[in-house]
Amino acid sequence: MKIALVARHASAPAASADPYAAEQAAHVTGLGRALAAHGHDVVIYARKDAPGIPDRETLAPRLVARYIKAGPAAPLPADQLPQHVAEIATYLAARWKKDTPDIVHAHHWTSGLAAMLAAREVPVPIVASFGSLGIAEQRNGVPGPHDSARMKMEAAVGRSVAGVLAHTSEEVSDLSKLGIPGTRVRVVPCGVDTSRFQPEGQAAKRHADLRLLHVGSLADHQGLEQLLKILPEFSSAELVIAGGPEPEELDSDIAYKKLGKLAAALGVADRITFTGQVEGKNLAALIRSADIFVSTARYEPFGSAAISAMACGKAIVANGVGGYADAVVDGTTGLLLQPGRPQLLAKRLRDLLATPMKLTGFGIAAADRARSRYSWERIAAETTAAYERCMAAPAGPRPGRPVALPAARRVASGTEQRRAA
User: Fold this and answer.
1) Could you tell me if residue 196 is inside a domain?
2) Residue 200 belongs to some domain of the structure
3) Same-domain status, 367 and 382
4) By the number of CB atoms within 10 A of the CB, which of 146, 191, 289, 347 ranks highest?
5) What percent of the chain has pLDDT over 70?
């Protein structure tokens, strides 16, 4: 099968205001490698977002990335991406006339819109994945653009493509609010490289008897203040917070400064480590050094960090939202907290730490679940099955669900975005 993956980024962006841009980029690349390993010919199409990026790059056998000149060769805020949709669509149509894919999988609504415009000239079936929907980000206070123009376009793309692949059950519910029925949606979660993320291997150095680990951005919706506030109750524990900006940029980050002041006021600053972004090759060692992966995030559309922690044999204690709710089997691979009740976090942690055998059992079960449910091999197989089902569906707008492509073209040119602003 010839597969085209259309994405905002083919690798983690050097800088982005979108807290999920890097996570989506990692998912697209991981999926591409897995599909290619299954014998498919895969091309990732992404905008050039840094100087010096080649036009074409071989990432693995049968996996190629093609980088599109559309706008400046620099990271762009998400609200500026629509201005370059038309350029991307023109490039895609020209490429697909020469080498037509069997299926197109567009990641993010702007990629979906570009693919739909290109498919007007080269009819191909399109599958869409959104990753993080504007309606969900608005509800959970996630920073970034989630205005009415974006939500309308997400709904239009989702109703017009051959099918939608969601990452979580929660996303399926949000898609239904946009008028995209569950019958057209299939849940295919993020995968994990179980050869890299596994219980055995090097572990990072630790500085306390108990290490709690959080991986994610420093944004308010991550609920990091709650983690800091419970730390005084665990005098033998250290908290490692991995994520946010690059390490050298932490000192200028507003969220980091705010959390640092809170840690100092609580008297726990010497037991908290902010690592900044951690490269994938070092993340597994950091995870292995921890006892428990913790999160009080209100919103988690991917859950890839927790899945990676599970693959390393770590118990998860997190709010039962998004990717956490799907990945964690409460009472078997970890503990799910009821969102909105942060006072339970310390109690559940104390109870778990008081029964070391349970903690060990959770870790063993977590590693087994990660291998069996979230290996890239299985994710690639499920994705391929979804593609095959959608390839029978007609390309372009679904019957009875016309998409307002004239409006879509205005968004692509930037006009609609400026009006919405």
Assistant:
1) no
2) no
3) no
4) 191
5) 90
